[in-house]
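Posting this for the archive.
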Amino acid sequence: MNDIDLKHIQQCELMIAKELKRICEKHDINYIMGYGTLLGAIRHKGFIPWDDDMDFAFLREEYDKLIEVCKTDLDDKFFLQTWDTDPEYPHPYGKILLKDTYVEEYFSQNTKSKKGLFIDLFPLDLISDDTDKQKKYIKSDFFFRRSLWMKKGHGKLILKQNLKQKLKYIFSRCLFAFFPYNYLKSKYKKTQIEYNNENNCILYDFTVKSKKFYSRVMLDDVSYYDFEDTQFPGPRKYDEYLSRLYGNYMELPPVEERGKQHTLINYDFGKY
C-alpha cells in the first residue's frame, strides 16, 4: 500500500467516523475512541501515519442502542455490518461500511461477507470479579469466537503456517462441524452478557491478548480529543488506558515495525 492510497483510506474512514459521531450525538449514545485510534489522537492529533483503521468502543447497552438507531438513521451511503445484518459475517462486533467501496482483509480474504472501507465498533461487557468465573468466561469466549469465524471460512491462511498450527486448525474445524452456526451464535450471545447485571465494574476486552480487563470508568469518564479536523471522545484517564496497552506509547516504534499491523490486502475506492 502506497502512502497516497493509505491517506485516501484514512480520509474515507474519517468520513464514516463522522457519521458515527453524528448519530451518537443525536441519540445520546456514549462511546470512546479505542486502541490505535486513541493513540493516534493523543500522539498525532489524528491518524497514526501508518495506520489503516479506526476503532471505537461502547458499553453493551450503548452498542445495542447504536445498532437499533442505525436501522432508521444511518445515511444510505453506509451499511451497518453485524452478524445479524450480514449472514456471512461471524464476528461479535460491528462495522460501518462505506458502500460502493471494496477492501479485503488479510484474515478474511476469500470469504463471502460484505467488504468495504470500514470502521470497527466494539461492544464491551462486564465480567465477574471471581477469578474462576473469569477463566471460564474467557475460555467460552475464545471457543465461540473461534468456532464462528472458522465456520464462515475465516483464518484459512493458518494452513500455510507450521505443522502444529495446521493440525490445530484442522482439529478445530472438525470439532466445530458438529455444531450448527446459529446454535453457536445464540449460545455466544448469552455468554457475552452473562455478568452485565452484576454489581461490578470490571470490563472484559476480547480484542487484547494479555490485558483483558479494565474499569468501566474508562468509558464513563471521558473527554474530547482532536482527531484530524474534528474531535472524538476518549477516556479522561487515557494515560492509564494507553500505558496498559502499549507501554511507553509516546515513543515511536522503529521504522521497520511501522505498518506491520496493515490488514488490507486489496482495495477499491469506487466512486470515492
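Helices lie at 3-26, 35-44, 60-73, 131-151, 163-176, 181-192, 217-220, 238-246. Residues 3-26 form the longest helix (24 residues).
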